Structures are given as C-alpha cells and as structure tokens.
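Submission sheet (multi-component)
Chains listed below:
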Amino acid sequence: MTATQPTLRAPSNRARAGALMRSTPAYIVVALVALVVVFTIISPEGRFLDATNLQAVGRNSAGLVLLAVGLTFVLGAGHIDLSVGATLVLSSVVAGTVAVDIAGPPSASGAFPSAGPAIAVAALAAVVVGGIAGLVNGLLVTKLKVNSFVVTLGTMGVATGAAQVLTNGSNVAGIPPDVQTSFGLNSIAGIPLPLVLAVVVALVAGVVLSQTSAGRHALAIGSSSDGAMRAGVNVQRSTIAVFVISGLMAGIAGFLDITRFGTTAISGHETTMLQALSAVIIGGTSLFGGRASVLGSVLATFIPTMLLAGFVMVGVSSFYQNIAIGAVLIIAVWLDQLRGK
Amino acid sequence: MIVRQPPVLRATGLAKSFGHVQALRHGELTVHAGEVVALVGDNGAGKSTLISCISGAHLPDAGEVRVDDRPMPLGSIKAAMEHGIATVYQGLAMAPDLSVAENLFLSCELRRPGLLGRLGLLDKKAMRERAWELMDSLGITTLQDVTLPVGDLSGGQRQVVAVARAVSRAGRLVIMDEPTAALGARQSQMVIETIRATRDRGLGVVLISHDLPRVLEVADRIVVMRLGRVVADLPARELKIGQIVALMLGEQNDPREESLPA
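Outcome: structure written.
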C-alpha cells in the first residue's frame, strides 16, 4: 500500500447501515408493516392480526415466493419467463395424475394405503416436469437465439395446452388427501410447512445469487451479455441455468398447489405469473438485468397476498387486488427510477 | 542483440468473412515476449477482426494461431485465456452493474478456503484486497473504491480497470483494442505507462490504435493492415508518421519489398 492510496477503500459499517436503510427491501418491509397496521385497524376487531389469518397469508404466499425466486434469476440475467404460471399448472397436473395412478382407489375405510410413496413420486414428477420445461426454454433461447419473451410466451401456451390435454380440461380428482393433512395444511411452530419450504429454498437461492460464481455470472450476462462472454463467462450455460432454476421453482410450486388444495387448479393461475413478475420488479430486480435481489422478491410477494387477505377481511371485493397490485407496480418502478437519477 | 525465443504468438493465414463481407483476407501477426507490436490501419482494414480471431471471440474460416510454438484451438475465448492471451476490447467487455472487483475477477472468481469454498461460496474480501494490490502494482491511483459499479466510473477509469484485468490474466500476451480512444491526454499517458509496465513484465503486447504519435512512442514494431491484409511489418524506430499513413492508405508499399531482391 503506497502513501498516496486513497483512504476510501471500503464502505464503513455506518455507510453500509445507511445503504441498507435506503435499500428496496427496507422500503418493502415498511410497506408491509403499513399494510398490517392499516388492515388491523380497519378489520373487524383487528382480526387481520389473528394467527389464522397470518397463516393463511403465509400459505397463499409459498408458491408465489418460489416463482418470484426463479424469476429473480431470469430477470437478473436479462431475460424473462412468462411461462412460470403455465409450468406450475402442468407440473401440478402431472404430479396429481402420478399420485392418483400410484395410490390407486381408496380402501373401504377411505384410506390410501400407498399414499406416502404416491406423494413422494408425485413431488419428484412435479420437479422434473418443471426442470424440463425450464431446460426447453433455456435451449430455445440459447440455441435458436429467439428472444426469451417470445419463447416463453410460446411455451406458456404449450404448457397450458398440455395440461388441458392431459386432463381434458378438468382438475385431477382422487389425489390422496394425506397430501394436504401431512404437509399442505401442516405447520411448524405456527408457520405453514409450504412457506417453510419456500423460505428455505429462497435462502439457498439468495446465497447462490449473491455469493457464488453462478450468481455473479447470471448478473454479469444480464448487465452485458457480450461483456460477460468476453470476460470468459459461459453465457449459454448460465442462460440455460437461470431458466432451469425458474422451471424447477415452478415445478415445486406446482406440487405445493396440490398440497394446498388437494387437487389441481388448472384455471386458477391466470394472474399468478403477473403477480410473481410484479413482486420481483417491486422487489428491486431490474427488468433489464444486471441487478437482482432474492430478498426483495420474497418480501414483495407478500404485498399481493396481504392485499387480498385484507380486502377479503374488510369486505372489499378481491377483484380490487389486481387493481391495487397494478398501481403498486407502477409506483414502485417510478420510485426506483427517481432514486436512480 | 536479443536472443529470440520462439515467439509468444505466431498467427498465420487467418481469414474471416461475415456473410458476403470478407473482413479478413490474410491476417498474420508475430509477437515476441517483452515486445509491443502496434497494429494500425484505416477503419475496416481488418484489425479488430484479426485480434478477435486471435482472442477466440471469432472462429476464423482459415488460418492457424500458435502460442509458444504450440497450436491453439481457435474460436474459444476460454482456450485463448488458457493459453495466456487476454484482451482489452474496444467495448471494454465489462458488466456495468457489477463492481470493479467483481469485473476484475469475472469468470476467475476466488472462492473461500475450506468447505464453504468447495460449496462454491466466493471470497469477496480476498477479491477486493487482490483488486487493490493489482491497482497498486500497476501504479493506478485513479480509483477510489473497488466496490463501485463499473457503470459509475468515468471512461478513463473503466479503461484502466479493463487493462488491469487483462494484465492480471495474461500469462503470455495482452491484446489492447484502442485502449486510449476517448481518453484525455493524462489518462492516455497513464495507459501508455501501463503498457510499458506490461512489456517490462515480459508479456507480449498487441496494440491497436489510431493515435499514431503514441503508437510510435511505445511500440517496438508496427504492423500495417489494409483491406483485410497485412501490408507491412516494420521496426517502429525506422518509421515516421507520414510513412505509416501512406502505408495505411495504400499510397506506399512495404519498403522492405522494394529493397528485397526479386
């Protein structure tokens, strides 16, 4: 170290704390706290703050958290994945069909003797279907060099259609209810199991994005694909990887869907992709790549689910949720642009 | 008199077409260790295409590249890097959203020691420290903070980071495409100093530049290209700017050819 070396070598702890306070996740936490306070005040007898209600919010958020985590990687790498909602549906349909096939009909007492293995294989099937869907997206984007918006718009249609063809358009019935009782409706220390799973997956994903070469490479290609390639990053491999991650997340979310409802929800996910995408952008991930925050995405997914729960509780039609999310999305991006200037 | 080892780089017969456009017809380049070779020519002469073929960014249609007299696989940036060739591109090849330190180590990240490293976790602190050491060793004092995003730096600072990255990665040869373009006089001088420091480390340097006075200041040899071909390869000390321009424009042939017996 020479004497002329500038002293501004690394930000001080105080500067870091200041930066944290001004970061997007901090703003989202403030917004979430504000939502809780407002809904608690205006809900009858403050019931919004009830454990049952908060558990429902958590349970409804789990799948969305996973989709948002996957999309964080894809957007960070400068791409988009419009097919996550459709992949979720296809994965749940395949998983449901597999579960029914393996479990067979219930015994006279109504129990499914081989429910355990059926559920395990169904979970695996959902993840595999999601992973394959992501791989297909990644290969089409990198090998055919078709824009990811177009590719995933196409595969969104393909996956939705495939799910409808497989089931003739009706939801899969006869899935062992154990899938709900043993997992989907279960909790650890009051926290719904699906949410625990989603948060653990999100934690791992957050470490991968911010602390590993794979994460740096994804953001580098989102920042400048050409620059990353010339710096020695394997752009094709990284691009395929982010789509596979997104597909895997949709696959897990598809399985969670079954554990939540005990059946599939083929027509229940028209706005799911848009909700997850909105959450990711509200969470501070750039729509144009290069900047991404798993924490921001995860926190922001609670905005739509809390709005919905709150509206239901205070007697406002749930249709207003979409209006509110649309407004929040535009305001969040506008605020982000103001901060960037 | 320098005893000549095999050259660090010997590229022969390189050709590259883009559709109907033959950007490079006959590219040849030889660089020895501790030598600065300037590649000059008018726009479209094929300079950038030639170095892209050598750096692995383009797969040439024909030709061969040998490093230390061993053939190098073509069309792979990774292979070129593994053979000790690092390139500073005109577009700089930086990820503007990533920090200086992250860009310096992009695709060569340092991992933490022990189990965490084997799990793939990065050693960000070590990368920041090594980034400072690198800046120090090249006498670079313009950067205040290696955690800043490269997109927040001035053009000159970005150039310095790009050169530092190439020098840190090159085992044999650094290729620089217009490293002083769009820089002020002081920052250009700093880059020239860095080029000298690079040569003094025993690396070969290929320098593409339109800045002929600076080229003559630092280069040992001048290679002139015109219309996709190398038309002259001469010691820099024998040349004046007017002669180089005449060669670039095709108004004068290689003086050696004229003096050689038929």
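Remark: Residues 1-9 of chain A have pLDDT under 50 and may be disordered.
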